[in-house]
Amino acid sequence: MKFAMIGAGAMGLRYGILLQEAGNDVTFIDTWQPHIDKIREQGGVYVMRDHKDRYLTKIKLETPETYDDDPDMLIFFTKQMQLEDYLKRCKHFFNDRQYAFTCMNGMGHIEKLQKYFADDKIIGGTALIATVLPGPGEVDFMGKRGAGMMNMCPLNEKPDDMCYQLFNELKKAQMNPTLTNDFTGTLMTKVIFNSVINTICTMFEIPMGEFGNFKGAYQMGRQLIDEAYDICARAGIHLVSTRDEEMAALDHNTRIDMPLHYPSMYQDMIKDRPTEVDYINGYIANLGRKYHYEAATHLFVTQAVHLAEYHRQNE
Ligand code: NAD
Question: Is 79 close to ligand 1, i.e. is its CB under 6 Å away?
Answer without folding.
Answer: yes
